[in-house]
Amino acid sequence: MTARTLMNPQPMTLRPTDTVATATALILSHHLRHLPVIDAQGRYVGTFSIYSLLRLTLPKAVTMKEGLSDVSFVNESTEDLAQRLRERGNEPVLNWLSTEAPVMHLETSSMEIMLLMLQGRTTSIPVVDKSNQRLEGIISFWDVFKKLTGEDA
Amino acid sequence: MHGSTEVASAGTMWLAAILFVITYGVVMSEKINRAIVSLVAAGLMIILGILNQEAAIRGVDFNTIGLLIGMMLIVAITRQSGIFQFLAIWSAKKVNANPWGILVMISLVTATTSAFLDNVTTVLLVVPVTLLITEELKVKPYPYLFAMIFASNIGGTATLIGDPPNIMIGSATGLTFNDFAYNLTPAILVIMAATLVPIYFIWGRHLRAAPEDRQRVMQFNEYEAITDVRLLKQCLSVIGLVIGGFVFAHGLGLEAATVAMTGAALLLLLANFGHDPEHQSKHVLDAFNEVEWITIFFFVGLFIVVSGVESTGLLKLLADKMLALTGGSLTATAMVILWSSAILSAIIDNIPFVATMIPLIKAMAPTFGGPEGLMPLWWALSLGACLGGNGTLVGASANLVVAGFAERAGQPIRFVQYTLMAFPIMLMSIAISTVYLYWRYL
Fold it and tell me: Using the beta-carbon criterion (under 8 Å), do A73 and B410 form an inter-chain contact?
């Protein structure tokens, strides 16, 4: 079994210029965790995920590399957090992509897919064509395990 | 630093000079890690017969190395207590979260901590809190980061242990912790205050924050930032003992490295006491891993290289040339050292520069009536080399750490933009040093 047979070939996607607010609405209404972002040519640019949302709702001083590891002394209200989320709502998702998350190719084996999910602590991985960087689909944990338990039949 | 002063053959001198210049050049190019460069050069010094291994090892100033490692270990453990974050928040709240007040307070905290602990660690821990505060206040972090760079380098100049050049100078000359405090701290207090003046006029007077944003900062609970009260008490006790040790070291016949390393050992003992062996191994290893080994080995190699050059008599020759230039006048020599150290340290790493200047200045002792006559020159070297680091973004390692944070926070500090503001302010601090040296010693 390879990525080609396991993937969802028509995932919901975003464009780099889509706003954070659009992405937030999609994630919340569809209970999604990851939204792959593709350019006009269909090439994979990165992933906007619930972790992007968490990151942009927190102060930069906390989420940056070597930032504050302990924030127990900060006492922000829900409104403070909500305001930060709103302020960043008009930014393009491009500013908040995770680009270091793993990707796989059409020929990636099922075992490797599972290992990538385990090591990356992620529930879905984009499938990218090696030759032209086009996004071919996305594989989620549920796709893999429904197949394994025969629930997809 | 104890190489023989007899003059070697011209061939050996040339060889040492060429090796020395290449080493400097490669270190400045930053193409190869500086520890590698200095160790390779040190190896070549010995293999090419400029000095033998015994002389090379004698050339390494283990008092400097021990003092650096000891203080790095103490900081490595102390930083885990959350004290740096506590101080930053506490000081911000003391001024009612007024944006200019915070800038002054954070600068003072940075300067004071840098005077006793490593500058890089200080900014590494204070910058993130500062960025959080400026984010909450919705003010630009740039003036704060700019002021912190200056504060860390200025504060570091105040004491024997504040900055590597002072550690080297103190170790090579036998000048004590108290000598540094007595001779440098007054100048530093004036310079720190004077530095805040242009910062106020350029940025400070425009800083504004809304009352509700200030209220958010006032609601920070600084006591929550302290992660381990027991550890904090241990750290503060040991730091107190170590500083006390530095103050009384001379009277007790102890050298600075003994005080720092014993303090580090005591803190490791206290922090690990009662824990099982496995836990201890992990914690001790974690602390050792925090020691900046690149800096330490850079020092070791550099001491050997400089000692090799010194042993050929080249530095004595340069000292004589410099004295000829200044006509043997103490005032002129002090000014040349102060201003050239400042300008060179803004561009190149001040550590190799100071390592070279120390034997060079020592060689001037006969002209100025023995080692005591050199005092003003040591203070000129210290003020020039430490304060000069403020001049450009690459002038000191703390500057680069702050710039790295600024970049990640989305508020990059540009090299040219920084230099345009910083270089004149640095020159102002050297002008103040000039007046100070002239008034007090010349």
Answer: no
